[in-house]
RimJ/RimL family protein N-acetyltransferase (Corynebacterium bovis DSM 20582 = CIP 54.80), 201 residues
Amino acid sequence: MTGGGVARGGEAGGAGRWPSLPPVIPVGTGTGPPTATGTDGGWELRLLTGEDPGELDAVLATVPEADRAATFHFFTVVPLPLDEFVTADPGRRTYGLFRGDEALACTSVYAADPDARTVMAGFTWTAPAWRGRGVNRAMKSALFSTLADAGVREVWFRADVENTASCRALERCGAERVRVDDAPRVYPDRVSRSVFYRRVL
């Protein structure tokens, strides 16, 4: 592990890469996250490979162009174009959260360290209409369970110290604040600091 416990670079792509994760992860009990509304037939995380343009379009639609600046304000790397993002790093796996054909959110797992049994999770966002409705918590709960079954012991997160909403969301999901990074967090138009969180599985 590097940087005081943060997982480092992931394995190369391929069927044998660690951790072994399924292409579809069930979320909730079939009626959606506990605090979300609706009587749909089930929620699931689907691995985005770039081979299904319809799924990519659905995930992209979670962030209308007018909302992108605000949604990605605290991203040091904007995950667009989405088709390039999901294939750019063979060590990163990106999942879309779906309710039927409707995408609600997106998240990624990357920087797997099989020796330390750690991964990082990030590049996470929720469609504006679904924020504050338990979507992020339900998504992370399903992801944590799947990662634990795959042998992961800790999930690490990196957030901007000024992104209080993200920090609160991580804490609600059981992650503990570990440290503020000494290195600057550099954006195209500003500089901030990163704070690291850890969720023990």
